[in-house]
Structure formats: structure tokens, C-alpha cells
Amino acid sequence: MVFSSLPNALSILRIILTVPVVMTLLNHQYLFAIILFFIAGVTDALDGWIAKRFSFQTRLGSILDPMADKVLLVGSFLALFWIDLLPLWLLILVFLRDVMIVAGTVGYFLGLDASRDDLLTPSNLSKFNTALQIALVLFLVIVQIYPVSYQWTTMFFIIVATSTVLSGADYMWIWTKQVILQEKRK
To answer: Is there a contact between 145 and 31 (Cβ–Cβ < 8 Å)?
Structure first.
């Protein structure tokens, strides 16, 4: 029984790791930030693998896992913006998408006939977007140690912005389809 709660404990650990990740970024301790961010990434991979491999998937876990990702990424993005490594327009875009997803998910589960056992499942495009956002954080930190041309950074910003918009649109499409299907069933 204790082992079955391990995925949720790993998600909570990832939320807790947000504080030292943000603090190391704000203090320009980039190598330490990379190590902590890597550890957080390992907890993300492990919690999902353990939950699926041993059938420990729970509704709580389906909420905690993406919430941990959001907390870590938003905290990292805020810190990167604060130290002038991330532009405000991208921070706002990512933040608005996340607010839309949280509001849409809450609305979906409150407004439709969703079972208490339904798991929250991110779309494939959302998973890809999260991976790109994680890669952007790592890229922005690594280039503080090993600088690259600003063109690469600008290109990465545009790729993440595009993925963010497409992922948000994907969720809108998924929710619209669900509402239409629900209305047809009535």
C-alpha cells in the first residue's frame, strides 16, 4: 500500500523542488539549477512509469502530476523572466494557456457527467509542449554556462510559443468535441 502512493509522493517532491530550483536561478547558480531541474525531471519520469507499470494510477495522481509540472515550469519561467532570460510576451502566453487549461479542466469535470474515477489525461500535443518548455528552461540555463548565438534563443522562443498556442487550441478542440458529444447524448 505504501508503494502505491510512491507516484504521488514523487509528484509532491517535484512541487517542493520548485523552491530550490527558483532560488538557484534567481541567484545565478546555473549548474546547481540544472542538477535540481534534472532531479525534478527524473521524478516526473519515475512517477508516471511506476503508476503505469504497477497500475497505481489514481485520480489524485492524474491531478498531482500535471500540477507539479505546471508549478515547476511556471516557477522556473517566472524566475527566468525576473533575471531577464525569458521575454514577457512568452511568459504571458504560457501563463494564459495554463490558466485556460486549469479553468477548462475544472469546468469540464464540474459541468459534464464525469465520473469520480475519471483520470485527467493530457493530450499528446500538451505532452510535447511540456517537453519543449522543459527543454527551453534547460537551454536558457545551459547557455548561461556555454553561450550560443542569440538567434538560437529567439528560434527556441518562437518554437515554444507556437507549440503553446497549438496545445491550447488542441484543448479547446477536445473540450468542444466533448461538449457536443455530451449534448447529443441528452
So the answer is: yes
Quick check: helix, strand or coil at residue 98? helix
Residue 116: all three cell numbers together: 469520480
Q: What is the pLDDT of residues 45-63, one digit of tens each?
A: 898 888 888 888 887 888 8
* Contact predicate 100/169, CB 8 Å: no
Contact 14, 48 (CB under 8 A): no
CA 61 to centroid of chain Cα atoms: 14
Residue whose cell numbers read 479542466? 105
**Over the chain, what is the mean pLDDT?**
88
Predicted TM-score (pTM) of this structure: 0.87
**Helix H segments across 54-149?**
59-82, 88-111, 124-145
Of the two residues 175 and 136, the one the predictor is more confident about is 136
CA distance 22 to 80: 9
The dihedral through the CA atoms of 135, 161, 95, 147 has a sign that is positive
